[in-house]
Amino acid sequence: MSIATILSRAQRGIDAPSVRVEVHLGPGLPMLGIVGLPSTCVRESKDRVRAALNDAGFDWPAGRITVNLAPADLPKEGGRFDLPIALGILAASGQLAHRALELTLSRTEFVGELALHGALRPVRGALPAALAARREQRALVVPAGNGAEAALGHPAGTHAATHLRDVCAWLRGGEALAPASAGAALAGAAETADLAEVRGQHAARRALEVAAAGGHSLLLVGPPGCGKSMLARRLPGILPLLDEHDALEAATVRSLAGTGFDAARWREVPFRAPHHTSSGVALVGGAVPPRPGEVSLAHRGVLFLDELAEFPRPVLDVLREPLETGRIVVSRGGRQAEFPARVQLVAAMNPCPCGWHGDASARCRCTPDLIARYRGRVSGPLLDRIDMHCAVARLPAEHLAPDARAGEASVAVAARVQRARALMLERRGTVNAELSPAAVATHCQPDGAGRALLAKAAERRLLTARGHMRVLRVARTIADLAGAERIAVSHLAEAIALRCLERSLDGELDRS
User: Fold this and answer.
1) Contact partners, residue 500, CB within 8 Å, separation at least 6
2) In angstroms, rounded to a whole number, what is the distance separating the alpha carbons of residues 413 and 477?
3) 46 vs 326: CA distance, rounded Å
């Protein structure tokens, strides 16, 4: 035949739209043309494909070769179309002749970059392609380097190949390609830091437990060296492993990032800690084509912003929308992509430029104006989106002694978190931090005394409507940790205390 069609997948955000690679052999001067909005990388595939076919022992057809990547209005990026273009040329020129060839090609999709000697190299976004192929009930052939990743999304229909010759032999009716396997997921996180290493800081540990149970955002404020970063980095160790749906969502984003993908750890909670010199594009995504940023790479996990006040204010403010909606839309160069961004934000900052405001040592010499400018680097709307604000005090000397009593281990805290999570999931199928206003009205209403306390707090502390809603969600989590069916006054009082940033900063930090 002089026309062949090979099925493949493009990349657009976290989606993998279908692409039909149509190859036509016709009369004319020998040349290869690629149409269908190909990028420079795709246009350069003609040289890679020609070298790979020659090295694999195939003939380069005489005449004019036209490759159409349909649909024509979808931008095509990367080297993922090398393999389908090569197979299309071989099928159109009759070098893959087999009685079941057309049936196999109609039921199989191909993705992979070719080396000059015909070896298959891995590409970004194999997992979204596998998920899309499974929805269409087609098999998928990927490079061996993408096999474990793609098998997570399509375990029964993913085949891995190492060389162009292997794929061609299979299409000719030879030996079948080996099915790809994701392997067994590891039971726990590698080198998980334990909360037992944190001495003292009972109030901060309690706030961390509440945050873990309900998926709430948390701001830790305290002097240098008091353990803010140490606490935050131990949050993943008390969080439950992700369920299959959330884990696949998070793994899909990591697959697009091209930063390396460990299929054995796909169920682990993501933890991202960008430096305070990061740009807004680094946090929310960008480039052409759009790629996910840190807030998307932390999807269904923890985004830790250390030295929060050192981030430029415009950079922090780009987080306001994704923190509220759980998604981010990136538009660059006329292209638009939507990425998930449902993260648990944990931030740490000093109370003033020198870091010692409110400390019992009274060593701070920062003026009120200097302190106000420092705190003003974090905008009010962003602070309003953080559920809990916790003061972390400098530890007394006796807590730092080598023989000081260790704190409660992560495994014990994680057990309580898991029990509270089970109550939440049984009630609404989601963590309390993601409860809708209607669900809050149904499940988070306090009794009469609690309502009076909340009204008093709103009047004195000027809670916004958003802050009012977040206090109720945190109170519901505190009640779940206690195994209580209704929100009591004590639960609400603790939630309100965890919302009072001004008191935590301006008063002397209590020792824990």
Assistant:
1) 389, 461
2) 14
3) 41
Sequence-distant (6+) residues with CB within 8 A of 244 are: none
Measured distance CA(40)–CA(45) in Å, rounded: 9
In this predicted model, what pLDDT tens digit does every residue of 16-35 receive, in sequence order? Answer: 999 999 999 998 888 999 99
Q: What is the pLDDT of residues 229-242, one digit of tens each?
A: 999 999 999 999 88
- The DSSP code for 15 is B
Residue listed under structure tokens 């149509």: 22
Residues 318 and 429: their CA atoms lie apart, in Å, by 29
Rounded Cα gap, residues 428 and 157, in angstroms: 34
Work out whether strand 302-305 and strand 271-272 pair parallel, antiparallel, or are unpaired.
parallel
Q: What is the 3-state secondary structure (H, E, C) of 272-297?
A: ECCCCCCCHHHHHEECCCCEECHHHH
Task: Supply 467's token pair.
Answer: 């802050």
CB 266 within 8 A of CB 300: no
Contact 157, 176 (CB under 8 A): no
What is the mean pLDDT of the segment spanning 127-146? 94
Q: What are phi and psi of 122, to 5 degrees?
A: -65, 155
Amino acid letter, 299: H
Residue whose pair of structure tokens reads 């000719």 in the numeric block: 172
Rounded-to-integer distance, Cα 384 and Cα 381, Å: 5
The DSSP output letter for 464 is: -
Phi then psi for residue 290, to 5 deg, are: -60, 135
Bridge partners (DSSP) of residue 344 are 302
What whole-number distance in Å separates Cα of residue 440 and Cα of residue 470? 9
> Exposed e or buried b for every residue in 357-392, given b needs 16+ CB within 10 A?
bbbeeeebebeeeebeebbeebeeebbbbbbbbbbb
**What pLDDT, on the 0 to 100 scale, is given for residue 214?**
94
Q: Are the beta carbons of 25 and 63 closer than 8 angstroms?
A: yes
One-letter amino acid for residue 511 of the chain: R
The CA distance from 330 to 270, in Å, is 21
Pick the closest to residue 93 from 174, 32, 159 (CA basis). Answer: 32
> Which DSSP category does 434 fall into?
G
Q: pLDDT value at position 107?
A: 94
Q: How many CB atoms lie within 10 A of CB 185?
A: 14
Q: How far is residue 289's CA from residue 189's CA, in Å, rounded to a whole number?
A: 32
Q: Is 312 left (phi over 0), alpha (psi -120 to 50) or beta?
A: beta
